[in-house]
Amino acid sequence: MAAFEYDILVGKDDPGAAGGVVWFLATDMRSSLGDNLPAILNVLGEDGWEVTALGDVGFDARAEIILKRAV
Question: Global pTM?
């Protein structure tokens, strides 16, 4: 049976960032992944992560990106 790991990509407002948003993984909110979402998704994809859903799991103004990868 396949086993999966899940994480959530969370955007936080940052007026100094391109587009005004900086992205973090929910498992490490102290380390920013940057502000270039396509580049972030490509790097995460190289590590086996894939986008599985978008949703407002944080009940804020921005939808979060739900990721999964096989372990």
Answer: 0.88
